[in-house]
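User: Could you check the structure of this?
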Amino acid sequence: MPSEEYEIRKVTDAQTLRALAHPVRIALIEALTLRGAMTATEVGELIGESPTTCSFHLRQLAKYGFVEEAGGGKGRARPWRITSIGMSVTTTHDPEAEIAGDALLRVFRERSFAKYQMWLETKGTYPKEWRDAASNSEYMFWATADELEQLNEALTAVMMERFRFQDRLTDPAMRPPGAVPVETLLISYPIELPKPPEDT
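Assistant: Sure, the predicted structure tokens are below.
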């Protein structure tokens, strides 16, 4: 059974979005999500940053409610943990929030594509089973906005249920033998403007 209950946090306001849009803060959230509670020194060793830098950014993330002290320790020896298993960026058509949200998404995607490039450069060192299992696919198809939204919701639901995201993130005992962190990017967007309806 999972040890704690986490939720996916909805981030909507420009100030919070701007506070997140920093590569070190994204790296900290990712590390704490995948590895569990850590001190500034421990997470710094993992992401290649100094304890002082990590301590500053952890305090900033705590200010906006993305991390919290896990209990025990003092100063930089205090462990930190995440407060949610993920986030959803929703800008509700606010121009300032949309600009901040786009900046945050660029930081996320730059980090994701850098990891993908690393995979391409190092995949020869992985066992054949992992090279065969990895995917690099692109699909182009015709759909309405409603259909695309339904597709994204359905794919998310399948992945959340199939891989028991929360259980496996928060409870290492729930991970099957041989499991490693895997990243899947699902990015869908129109490549042409919709045509206005014809007059009848």
